[in-house]
């Protein structure tokens, strides 16, 4: 069941109260003494959304889904906290060449970089790497984690536009027929020493290429002011 990320203030208050208590009765949850009909409506909505359940003793408790959802809250502001996204980047190599991906969707329409994709809920990073490789290139190959990047993109005023963690994989021993173009991008093999001469490159491409020469897994953080978002 899909859970709404924005709930009524009364419903958020109920969830936070149950987050810090094993269970609560109606009277304790309704600490602001709201009209019974009004408060009961919000209780029913949370039960309908499978976020809370009523126990045999008449008290209320978070469901498994409710615990996971309420745990995203800042308990002071009682809003879901924004968190960085997680994804993978694939440096697909074949001899002296590397597979460059031109993005044909927003944001960063037309920019050159490498195949990337979001990590699905419950998916391992290696599973994501293999899935994205197949979906966005039609290839299979050996995946090896070579780096992790925390990347924050800001506008000229310093406002954060995107905040992401990337697990960076090298892909070698590729097999299959390359899918050169699809509705969200296109792929081309490029000599590694010519990649930095391409137009509209992502700011971290040179740093990612440098990971191919290292033996250990590297971690780095970047904060960029960007245009073309």
Question: How would you describe this protein?
Answer:
The longest helix has 13 residues, at 36-48. Helix content is 24%, strand content 35%. The chain folds into two domains: 9-80, Winged helix-like DNA-binding domain superfamily/Winged helix DNA-binding domain (Arc Repressor Mutant, subunit A), CATH 1.10.10.10; 85-225, Alpha-Beta Complex (Nucleoside Triphosphate Pyrophosphohydrolase). The strands form three sheets. Strands 5, 6, 7, 8, 9, 10, 11, 12 and 13 form a nine-stranded mixed beta sheet that branches. Strands 1-2 form a two-stranded antiparallel sheet. The chain starts with 8 loop residues before the first helix and ends with a strand. Strand 1 and strand 2 form a beta hairpin. The protein is an alpha+beta fold. The chain is built from six helices and 13 strands.
Write a compact overview of the structure shown.
The protein has 229 residues and is of the alpha+beta class. 24% of the residues lie in helices and 35% in strands. The strands form 3 sheets. Strands 5, 6, 7, 8, 9, 10, 11, 12 and 13 form a 9-stranded mixed beta sheet that branches.
Task: State the main characteristics.
single chain; 229 residues; alpha+beta; Arc Repressor Mutant, subunit A; 2 domains; 9-stranded mixed β-sheet; elongated
- Shape, please? elongated
Q: Supply the number of helical segments.
A: 6
Subunit organisation of the chains: single chain
Helix content: 10-25%
Radius of gyration: 23 Å
CATH architecture of the largest domain: Alpha-Beta Complex
Q: Regarding CATH, which class of the largest domain?
A: Alpha Beta
Spatial gap, N to C terminus: 33 Å
Arithmetic mean pLDDT: 94
SS-based class: alpha+beta
Say what the CATH topology of the largest domain is.
Answer: Nucleoside Triphosphate Pyrophosphohydrolase
Count of extended strands:
13
Low-confidence stretches: none
Query: How many individual domains?
Result: 2
